[in-house]
Amino acid sequence: MKRHWEIDALRGLMLVLMTVTHLPTHFTDPLGQPFGWVSAAEGFVLLSAFMAGLVYSRYARRDGVESMRSAFWRRVLKIYLAHAALLLFLFTVITALGIRRMQPAVTNLVSWYLAQPGEGFVFGLLLIYEPALLDILPMYIFFMLLSPWVLAFALRHQRWGWPAVMVASAALWAAAQHGLSEWVYGWAFALTGLPVPFNEMGAFNAYAWQFLWFGGLWLGFTRSAPQARPLRLHWAVVAPAVAVALVGLYWRHFGEHGQAPFGADIARNLWVDKWQLGPLRLLNLMALGIVAIRFGPTWARWLPRVRWLETLGRASLPAFCAHLVAVLTVLAIFGDSQTSRPWWADTLLLAVVLAWMWAVARYTQNADAAPPEETVQPPEPPAALEAATPTGSAGLT
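Below the sequence we write its predicted structure tokens.
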């Protein structure tokens, strides 16, 4: 079976946008959230969840639920080992370099580790202490651990399984908007005396982001059915989505307050908050998703293929790790100033980092791929998010 190159290219694009966002250069602000009030992280998580639902539900249909669970556990172990390696790199090489250069961009990043190195190392490996930039993989591991149970439940209850999952997920997202994460932390602290401060447990609110993950998992599950038909969206849905997407795009790039949509109004900015996955951000993301589903096949036919983006997307876990290695190294050497170097130097730096990511992805893409699904007959081959499955789940899924 052929890989679905559009999904690979989209995941590669999300990796590039994340790199531009995390690497401190002149490009960081103007290219941050380029499509509206949505960042590359949302697109990356959604696409990864879509691929997980697509590929692993086919494992379950072909080889049984236990085989699907085993495939998930193997993938989780690989992601955990990658995260542990990144932590070790941060706590040794980057920390030593940052201290030697007296670089606040690094010492602030690992301030709790420097204060409590033993506990920092142990709780980091336990996925509880999550330094900034290294907080997406622990959340991803948590979602991957839950996914086989959710997929098995949906397979066992075909009629009402997914509606029940999504209603519960939406309720959890709503609770996350009203302090669920802080309440759970307070409860855990009272029972265990957990030494990790709340603000050192990652910026992403996993109770909110699980809604995005399970939505993508559900969409991939529906596309994996042997007789799945391409999605057809009525213009009564598409037209409002296009309007919302255009408003978000204009507001982001031409609004009065840049990437803070409501300026100094903290309460209203939470409506578009990335870490909480605020309601307006979720609305903007849904609108962009509908636009991609409706117009993606046409764009895929007319736009040229960007092969190096596909390479990044095919091995997105190694490429993601490579981007963090590069970003942490730059922070340790140059600091976090976005304007300390001339434009030409930032251009060269970004080109070198992207070339490094591509080289890592190219070298590891075969080792990172899942085994092919040779016995499964593909449905009618649509494009973009209407996709049927590719040969394997390379990358984070």
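The two ends are 18 Å apart (CA to CA).
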